[in-house]
Amino acid sequence: MAQAVVTAGPGELAHGGDPEHYTNTGVSNAKLAIWLFLSSEALFFGAFISTYFLYRGRDAQYLNKGVQNPLTPDRLFNIPFTSITSFVLLMSSLTMVLALAAIQRGDHRRLRIWLLATALFGLTFVGGQVFEFTEFYRHGLHLSTNMFGTTFYVLTGLHGAHVTMGIIWLLILWGRSMGDRLPTEKHEAVEIAGLYWHFVDIVWIFIFTAVYLIPQH
Amino acid sequence: MTTVEDAHALVKAPPLRTRLTQRPRTTTGPFSWITTVDHKKIAIMYGALALFFFLVGGIEALFIRLQLAQPNGTILSAARYNEFFTMHGTTMVFLMGMPLAAAFGNYLVPLMIGARDVAFPRLNMLGFWIFAFGGIFIYSSFGLGGAPNGGWFGYAPLTSTPMSAGLLPGRGVDFWCVGLIMLGIGSVATSVNFLVTILNMRAPGMTMMRMPVFVWMMLVIAFLTLFAMPPVTAALIMVFMDRNFHTNFFNAAAGGDPLVYQNLFWIFGHPEVYILILPGMGIVSEILPVFSRKPLFGYSIVVFSGIAIGFLGWGVWAHHMFASGLGPIAVSAFGLSTMLIAIPTGVKIFNWLGTVWGGAVRLRTPMLFALGFIAQFTIGGLSGVMHSIVPSDTQQTDTYFVVAHFHYVLFGGLVFAIFGGFYYWWPKFFGKMLNEQMGKLNFWLLVIGFNLTFFPMHFLGFEGQPRRTYTYPSGMGWDTMNLLATIGAFIIALGVLVFLVNVIFTARRGEPAPADPWDARTLEWSIPSPPPEYNFATVPIVTHLDDYWHRKYTEDDEGRLVKLPAGAAIDTDAATEAAVDPHSIHMPSPSYWPLVFAMALPIIGYGFVFKNWYLLALGVVWGFFGLNGWAYEPATEPDAGEGH
Amino acid sequence: MLERTNRVRRAAATAAVALAVVVLAGCGDKTGPNNKQNALRPAGPYAHQILNLFTPFFWVAVVIGVGVVGATIYVALRFREKPGEERAVKQTHGNVALEIGWTIIPALILMVMAVPTVATIFSLAKRPTGPNVVHVTVSARQWWWQFTYDDTHIVTANELHIPVGQPVSLTLVGPPPCNSPGCYNNGVIHSFWVPELNGKKDVVPGRTQFLKLKADRPGTFLGQCAEYCGLSHANMRLRVIAQTPADYQAWVQRQLQPLSAAALAQFSKYNQAWTCLACHSDDPKTPGAIAPNLTHVADRCMFAGDIFPTDESHLTDWIYNAPSMKPMQENPKNPLQPKVGMPNFSSVGMTKAQANEIAKFLLSNTATTDQQPPVECRS
């Protein structure tokens, strides 16, 4: 029975970004962790998206019945506007990829530019959402108005909250880089933030398609 | 404690604005428990707090049984009874069952796979503090507007109608929703930790199929938790929003469908019961081979049936909804899938019996509990199969029959396995053997009390007694069995008391335990009792399933046990151990930040429950402060490594 | 050494005896008490179908259960290691044939179970058709049951009369939805359960559910709400009274009689003082807004969710201070307390004498038979 004298502590084993650190799967602990977390989040959004689908169209027989100018998606949505903000969010994933590429080749100036760009694009998207929400609210669509109000605001609101947390995360990374505390060896930190960011973007693609693009009567 | 090196470390430290207080350094003494990141200490805290909640939930049960001992009881008012049965279920599932799995998992998984700690020690600590604060948060409701009273399952629209409608008294449900979301966050964090640890940090040679069954079970439930928590979190958010923001998720007038809640809840709820029971099955799979001196019969099948149960568990959820009007096609499908899942479950039972068969059986306390598990879990499983007969289930569901069923699997099963696990691993955790005579008394009191309490309930259910009823009329013929059940409950209480006495007695005058008091099979028994902070002086290289056993024994040509000459295994460890300087082993450093961050959650929680937006904002800011401090702090201090 | 063996044997035997006592205590009378709410005493074809499906598999389960428990005790004792003995145990890792066997055999048993299960599911889901079927709409409220007969439009509460031998098709609904601002009482989930006639079916607000009943013999069959619905879930009982077709028709005719003009006038006077008709109804075909129809309340054996006998003293106490008898709203002034159910009229000035007067009125003017309580209440 061989006994190798290996005195590695878990801190060294778990430290992401160091290619020498052995993990059974070959994926670093931090990266495996974020993938697992995102798979959990996928189900979270899945629950709200399914609920949206289950309740879609109900207002016609219930709270919108007999209402003169019912508050329905086709009367409220501004698809061109939302398409633009969606495109902005999509572009933010591109800038995120560029940010990761920058730190991986040691270009910290570009890293900061692309991180900031991603955050700003994200902020633009959230701003667009806020504008959209206030517009709908002005037209009378509240959480309690009907089923559309409930499911729409909660689903997109939760998504917007996730984007916001992502923006804060990116800005913190940007701040760290500005303070010289995000060296090239720590590129995995950017990669992990990137995974979260791409996830949030993909969820939006689902939401945009399901909620905005599929016609509803 | 402070040396020149420490002073240098302070000088080189990051700027003061990110280090409000000095990072804790001590790993001994009472204060170190608050800041520890050592998985073993965290496990003990999980276990101690979960045991405390077990007692609380048990007292709630005793009150329930006192109220039901006679018809038209007056011990508890209807309102109080409804709070008690809600809290009993909520406590036992979320504050006892899951944390005890986390306790055993936390202590044993790193040891069993030959690791020195889990993948994310501070995240581990966070999981514990979220559990602690979540439990306190939910229980604080008793004095802040009423405890949760919508049942542990909280069906809408009873729970989702705003408080002002008066359908259910008090704001307990708000506490319940927010508290469970909080606990869910902790569970997901802990699951990620276990998954990464098991997948990434096994010792060299420890392939997946050489892992102990207990580790496999923890792997499966970590996946289950990861995927089960989101749907219930969504459901709880919907209930909370319906209650407080007048959304329409379950508002029938708006077209809301209460069954949406039930589907979301049970998509969580059914995997949840496997999350509860699989660690118990893992514990039993560890105990039986040791006390039979034989390997687990059919290791691969036991592992694969655990995985199968994990998968199939996602396809049976609507068997909790057979009476809710799903239609014949849906209930047929779920009835069939429920019958299907009985197969891997049954297979395990036969494999366990096959393990004991032909062995050299030592009927010590852990073994008694494991055997009790087999018998009682089987009975519970059989009543479960009765439930899968859908038309019959429409008579059984929501009656005392199903109360009998799930207590047989969760108490007669899981809790017995947990007690077995306590008696089995106590020497490893604390360096002392629990007293064997008291252990046997503990066991027999529990067996008698448990069966006396819950067996009559099978009959009560068929004879018409529904569950969740604070009283029943006289003249129904239910009086005697209810009284028997109450007596049984107090016998259970006596058994638990004996356990507590045993714990205290052992702490004072317990027999000191060697590294391997049971002649066991897995790696945790190859290190001292209790283990040093770094677990393994030298990371083991694994060549077999039950690697430790194979260092002690081999087989002759007929497969019979042959003991290896003394000094083949244990002494080598001691020698190598002495050769390694513990100070060279770098362990993660203690930290305040998980505690600080965890504190933000109840603040946010109270903000939501009382609609106090200042409190909410304070909590969010506090949370960011905690997260920030955490992120800037390295996992291990560069100057650490004295081995403490 | 021998003493230890004997002690263990004795302990095991004692446990086995204790267990047997518990089991047999329940098995004494194999069908359990005759409490009219016993699923083991079916009184109609649907309940019989369920019990007939269950019984054989129950015994299979008993055999397996006894077998496994017995095997557990057996292996524990048979292979016990004597102290000091060092047995060279054979390290069996498994046995493929055995493992396949004990996977396949349970699967076969389950397959056998599945076939009649699915058949019964579909049989019980089939709606009865034909002129003989009695259609009733059941509306479940906190904490009482409203029954509306679809053909005659009779509205009654908590007590369902049905003709023997004819299928009864129940449509289960919640309360009528309200979506006016501030109105959230769209009801909660209840479950209609009369064990001796059929399994239970949930009543879900917003949904329309189906359940059928049929009694093979006259009699009273008790039921209870079987889905937690708040404070008085335990007090939401009901009864089904199966009568010969002739008796049933007589009952229908009596229910159809409106109250006399004098009685209606008296009702109106009470209504002016206490707003009874804001919640209740005094017309046989009109449901009360949120409370039981009182037109023929005196004909019903029990009231308030079938928990109190319909007699003068109970009715008086109920009208005077209902929440003191059945948990509904403990403190109306407390915003955290519910506002459901019959109010506490004593707290708004009603005297016991006034309550008694109303009770006597209800008992005398709403009864349609001479005998109080009615004949069918005495079984």
Task: Compile the SSE list and pairings.
The complex is a heterotrimer of chains A (217), B (644) and C (379).
Chain A: H1 10-14, H2 29-55, H3 73-76, H4 79-104, H5 108-138, H6 147-178, H7 187-213
Chain B: H1 4-11, H2 32-35, H3 39-68, H4 78-113, H5 121-140, H6 172-200, H7 213-245, H8 258-292, H9 299-312, H10 328-356, H11 365-388, H12 390-396, H13 400-430, E1 432-433, H14 436-462, H15 479-509, E2 511-512, H16 547-552, E3 553-555, E4 561-563, H17 570-579, H18 593-609, H19 613-632
Antiparallel strand pairs in B: 1-2, 3-4
Helix pairs in contact in B: 3-4, 3-5, 3-15, 4-5, 4-6, 4-8, 4-13, 5-6, 5-18, 6-7, 6-18, 7-8, 7-9, 8-11, 8-13, 9-10, 10-11, 11-13, 11-14, 13-14, 14-15, 18-19
Chain C: H1 2-27, H2 45-78, H3 96-125, E1 134-141, E2 144-149, E3 155-157, E4 159-163, E5 168-173, E6 190-192, E7 201-203, E8 209-213, E9 219-224, E10 237-243, H4 245-256, H5 261-274, E11 302-303, E12 308-309, H6 312-321, H7 352-365
Parallel strand pairs in C: 1-5, 4-10
Antiparallel strand pairs in C: 1-2, 2-3, 5-8, 6-7, 9-10, 11-12
Please explain how this structure is put together.
- The complex is a heterotrimer of chains A (217), B (644) and C (379).
- Chain A is mainly alpha-helical and 217 residues long.
- Chain A has helices at residues 10-14, 29-55, 73-76, 79-104, 108-138, 147-178, 187-213.
- Helix content of chain A is 70%, strand content 0%.
- The N and C termini of chain A lie far apart (72 Å).
- Chain B is mainly α and 644 residues long.
- Chain B has two domains: 45-516, Cytochrome C Oxidase, Chain A (Up-down Bundle), CATH 1.20.210; 581-644, Helix Hairpins.
- Helix content of chain B is 64%, strand content 2%.
- Chain B has helices spanning 4-11, 32-35, 39-68, 78-113, 121-140, 172-200, 213-245, 258-292, 299-312, 328-356, 365-388, 390-396, 400-430, 436-462, 479-509, 547-552, 570-579, 593-609, 613-632, and strands at residues 432-433, 511-512, 553-555, 561-563.
- In chain B, helix 5 packs antiparallel against helix 6, helix 13 (400-430) packs antiparallel against helix 14 (436-462) and helix 18 packs antiparallel against helix 19 (613-632).
- Chain B is globular and about 75 Å long.
- The model of chain B is unreliable at 9-20 (pLDDT under 50).
- Chain C has 379 residues and is α+β, with helices and mostly antiparallel strands.
- Chain C has a domain at 261-378: Cupredoxins -  blue copper proteins (Immunoglobulin-like), CATH 2.60.40.420.
- Chain C is built from seven helices and twelve strands.
- The chains are: A mainly alpha (217), B mainly alpha (644), C alpha+beta (379).
- Chains in contact: A-B, B-C.
- At the B-C interface, helix 4, helix 8, helix 9, helix 10 and helix 11 of B face helix 1, helix 2 and helix 3 of C.
